[in-house]
Amino acid sequence: MPAGLETASPARLAQSIETYLADHPDAALLEEGRVIFELRTSRYSVNESHGRCLLELWNDQRNLVRTVVDVQERAQCLRIVTRRMGAARPQKLELTPTSVRRAPTTREAARRNYQRLLERVLTRSFIGAKVSGLRSAMDLEHSFGPAYARGHLLRGTAADAVIGVSAAESGAMVDGVLTLGILWLDFCRQRGDRRRHFGGLKVIAPAGAWRTTAERMAWLNHGAANFELYTLDERSEELAAVDFRDTGNLESRLVRAYSAAGAMEHCRAGLDRLLALVPAAARRRVEVRARSATEVGLLLHGLEFARVRLGASAHSFARQEEVIFGVGANETPLTAENEEMCCELCARLFQSRHADGAQTDPLFRLQPERWLESRLRAGIGELFPGLRGDLLYSQVPALSSGDRGMLDLLTLDRDGRLAVIELKANEDLHLPLQALDYWIRVRALNADRQAARGCKALSAFERQAYFEGAEVSPAAPRLLLAAPALRIHPANEPVLRYLSPQVEWELAALGEYWRRELKVIFRKRSSDTRA
Fold first, then answer.
1. Would you give the DSSP letter of residue 141?
2. Rounded distance, CA 354 to CA 174, Å?
3. How far is CA 213 from CA 36, 142, 181, 207, 245, in A?
4. Right CATH number for 368-525 from 3.40.50.1820, 3.30.450.20, 3.60.20.10, 3.40.1350.10?
5. With left for phi above 0 and alpha for psi between -120 and 50, is residue 128 left, alpha or beta?
6. CB 512, CB 486: distance < 8 Å
7. Is 171 helix (H, G, I), strand (E, B) or coil?
């Protein structure tokens, strides 16, 4: 066995892995350079058992169980030295922040090639215009990264801003091109050649990856700029215009609302068993929330640490109750043998996760947006006067074109108008357009009104049993965003100014100590300013 292995205690090894996963919720596990698990779609368990640190991961396709003997921090990853039963030598696994791994030199070369390709295609496609200043250099001050090639198309005193992204970039990068494009247009208008007027923005997306950009572009303020969308096939070098105003019907589906009270009643035995393991003095801090008609979770400041779910029994048609504990993607079935471990987790969690907790504690840092969401659920009327806290839905599934996301909060105002609420606890450059995605889907579902048996037309929300006892207005939803004032990205407001006048938005900047006291420092509204 290599020298230095097994010098750390099993508890310390487990804590190192948990800390890394708390800081990197989109982490991936690699073996011999190949991604074998993505934590976004997998579950894990890491704990001490019989003097060993056991790491287990599983998803729908596979599972892995290893004994961890050492953990080594590296610049871009966490190396985990493991021992597999029957293997003569230890094996090394790597946890990386994401599953995207390309060598920096390879990535930079690919981006330089794309920039040359884009310049060639633009010159050939826009005859009479001059391609100027095409670049992809990092400019952190203005939020421009090297994944996007940006420049100008000049035609006399008129000009357009241009931005493109390669098909080799990640899906998130491709979807973010419109945010960066708006910022590039705004930069050109503010700091460009004063002799030229930048009238619009041309966005170049990869062929086959344009739909998200098209849906977003349709809801920009077209009176403020001329927005155009193109796709580029990098093999044939063919540039094609996309009519984003006619992208077909937005296919949205809504999961039917369920009875939270009924779900809790079905899971009552398991909930009582879990609550008995929580320190008596801390039970009043536990939030019990239904996740579905057959699953209920126990939460502390938005962090779920245990859950009860009903599944089909292997031996009969009866429902079988499954009790699980663990935080984040960590999931361990509760048994008589590990109840003490569950008690220890609860004790550590309640000691760590409180308003005055330590920022260095991973249990304090874990899922800050869910913590913020729990604060807003309790004080929504104070933060956004006129909203109905009694008809508030959390983590509503939003499905469209095969993609599934969760909008943070959905409710009605006193006039029955829908309100989409998106929260961020940390800086996020793409907050406005990500929130717009949910607004677009909620608007489409609300506009899908059908009459049944001679009754008045009902929206998809009413037909799926949301907001029972209330009438949902056909008016377009409101878009509400909330984040700590010091965590609002400086680029968010310029992007919000370019949204369509039909999108009524409000940005609430919260006090930095929102865990202790929830209050609004300032507000910005769409009515205050437009591009």
1. G
2. 38
3. 30, 21, 11, 12, 11
4. 3.40.1350.10
5. left
6. yes
7. helix
> How far apart, in whole angstroms, are the C-alpha atoms of residue 372 and residue 55?
30
Structure tokens at 66: 């290893």
Angle, helix 177-191 to helix 431-447, in steps of 10 degrees: 120
The β-bridge partners of 495 are none
What is the spatial distance between Cα 415 and Cα 508, in angstroms, rounded to a whole number? 21
427, 416 Cβ separation under 8 angstroms: no
Q: What is the mean pLDDT of each run of 10 residues along the chain (531 residues)?
A: 54 86 86 84 81 84 86 85 76 83 73 95 94 90 91 93 93 93 95 84 94 94 96 95 78 80 93 93 92 92 92 61 85 88 90 91 89 91 88 75 66 95 94 94 91 81 91 95 95 96 96 93 85 47
Instruction: Tell me the C-alpha to C-alpha distance, in Å, between residue 102 and each of 78, 168, 195, 302.
Output: 17, 10, 42, 35
Q: How many angstroms separate the CA atoms of 92 and 323, rounded?
A: 32
Count other C-beta atoms under 10 Å from residue 371's C-beta: 23
Question: What is the edge-to-edge ordering of all strands in the sheet holding 78-83?
Answer: 34-38, 28-31, 91-96, 78-83, 63-73, 52-58, 43-49
Which amino acid, one-letter code, is at 497? R
| 356, 516 contact by CB (below 8 A) | yes
- Using CA atoms, how far residue 528 sits from 174, 229, 497, 501, 502, in Å, is 31, 29, 10, 12, 14
CATH topology of domain 104-246: Trna Endonuclease; Chain: A, domain 1 (3.40.1350)
Alpha-carbon gap, residue 195 to 188, rounded angstroms:
12
**373 within 8 A of 393, measured Cβ to Cβ:** no
Q: What is the DSSP string of 6-64?
A: T-S-HHHHHHHHHHHHHH-TT-EEEETTEEEEETTS-EEEEEEETTEEEEEEE-SS-EE
Predicted TM-score (pTM) above 0.85 = no
Structure tokens given for 370: 């869910």
Instruction: Report how far apart, in Å, the C-alpha atoms of 41 and of each of 5, 25, 26, 322 are.
Output: 31, 10, 9, 20
For residue 102, the one-letter residue type is R
Q: Compute the distance between CA of residue 111 and CA of residue 422 in angstroms, rounded to an integer.
A: 33
**CA–CA dist 206, 131 (Å, integer):** 20
Count of Cβ atoms closer than 10 Å to residue 347 Cβ: 14
3-state secondary structure 253-314: ECCCCCCHHHHHHHCHHHHHHHHCCCCHHHHHHCEEEEEECCEEEEEECCEEEEEEEEEECC
Distance CA(116)–CA(164), nearest Å, equals: 12
Q: d(Cα 508, Cα 531) in Å, to the nearest integer? A: 20
Residues 439, 522, 369, 305, CA torsion sign: negative
Query: Token digits for 411?
Result: 């409710």
In one-letter notation, the amino acid at residue 483 is: A
